[in-house]
From TrEMBL:
Protein name (record): TRAP transporter substrate-binding protein
CDD domains: PBP2_TRAP_Dctp3_4
Pfam families: DctP
Keywords: Signal
Coiled coil ranges: none
Organism: Aquamicrobium zhengzhouense
Domain of life (superkingdom): Bacteria
Signal peptide (residue range): 1-21
Protein's UniProt keywords contain Signal: yes
InterPro entries from the UniProt entry: DctP_fam, TRAP_DctP_sf
Length: 338
């Protein structure tokens, strides 16, 4: 009888564990492929860490490659409850999130490892107001990117005049327009198609992503200069987050912080950095600007900071104070372009 009683107790415990494991089931939607380094290197370890920390109570299923919606729609998908968690590029909706767009200004952030930690720490102060429709979790960056073209040269800003270029985000689009280029806006996943059908002659991208999105046979000419970063964020549907038990909410909070931002970016950064050497090994042409030519690029980007400040001030922010805090935080983590 004692053995039967023990077995019954074990069975009850097993059922309880199974029920507990299904306590919270969440969807995480993104728009890059499942093999993009951000998923196996960032999202999957993050999801597994949440599962372990919650002792199996929180299960998150990842839906890649725009399965649930277009890249530019992901913020609204989280807001509206189409998905529980969304990976967003705020720059895909130019003007909607003016404060976080500071990170898009070229020659501001030097790296995406400590830079992601710094940027997350800085933006956390403003996220609740700027992204008030959702629950903000983390923001992070990709490794500094540049311009990649079907033809060259790509050495100075004048080389872009009259060209059709896919920008990384709205801030870059404005810079390209100032220079005299035409912006052809599309998500990274559409980059190869644009180039293949001649709708764009160049694309902004970090180095490794040219291979990730299959454009390496089309873009053989590259501006060899750290130029810009792109900002990304993970956001939760507000109702889903607020509906979690205090215990489960703490698990999520413990995974929504500057440390998590740096971890999310780390493997992606590593993969991107390898892309440049791979292009050299495969015989691509890289154009390395001189110091004077780099200054020309910096001058071409200089109006963007004032435009950003005007936009933030119009939205009711103190742009000078916000920018100073960004510079101070980047300097704290040795991530500011000097």
């Amino acid at each position: 009888m004692k053995l039967k009683s023990l077995l019954a107790s074990v069975a009850v415990a097993a059922l309880a564990t199974t029920a507990q494991a299904a306590e919270v089931e969440l969807s995480l939607s993104h728009w890059v492929g499942a093999q993009h380094p951000l998923q196996p290197g960032g999202m999957e370890p993050w999801v597994e860490s949440i599962r372990e920390a919650s002792e199996g109570r929180i299960e998150i299923t990842i839906f890649p490659a725009q399965q649930l919606g277009a890249a530019a729609d992901h913020y609204d998908m989280a807001r509206d409850g189409v998905v529980d968690i969304a990976f967003i590029n705020p720059g895909y909706q130019p003007g909607r999130f003016p404060i976080i767009a500071a990170g898009e200004i070229p020659f501001t952030i030097s790296n995406a490892n400590a830079g992601s930690r710094a940027f997350d720490e800085w933006y956390r102060e403003y996220a609740a107001d700027e992204m008030k429709d959702v629950h903000f979790c983390i923001t992070h960056l990709h490794d500094p990117g540049t311009l990649h073209g079907v033809n060259g040269p790509i050495q100075v800003p004048d080389d872009l005049k009259g060209k059709s270029i896919r920008p990384a985000h709205g801030t870059m689009a404005r810079m390209l327009n100032h220079i005299g280029a035409a912006s052809v806006f599309a998500g990274a996943a559409e980059m190869r198609e644009l180039l293949a059908r001649g709708a764009a002659e160049m694309s902004a991208s970090p180095w490794g992503s040219i291979f990730t999105f299959g454009a390496q046979d089309l873009t053989k000419h590259h501006l060899d200069m750290p130029f810009y970063v792109t900002t990304f964020a993970f956001v939760f549907n507000k109702g889903v987050y607020e509906g979690l038990s205090p215990e489960n909410r703490k698990v999520i909070d413990d995974h929504c912080n500057p440390e998590s931002a740096e971890k999310m970016a780390a493997k992606w950064v590593e993969n991107e950095a390898k892309g440049r050497q791979r292009m050299i090994d495969e015989g691509h042409t890289l154009y390395k600007p001189t110091d004077d030519e780099v200054q020309l690029w910096m001058e071409a980007a200089s109006p963007l900071r004032n435009e950003w400040k005007e936009t933030v001030n119009k939205a009711g922010g103190d742009a000078d104070a916000i920018w100073q805090r960004l510079e101070d935080t980047l300097a704290k983590y040795d991530s500011r372009v000097k």
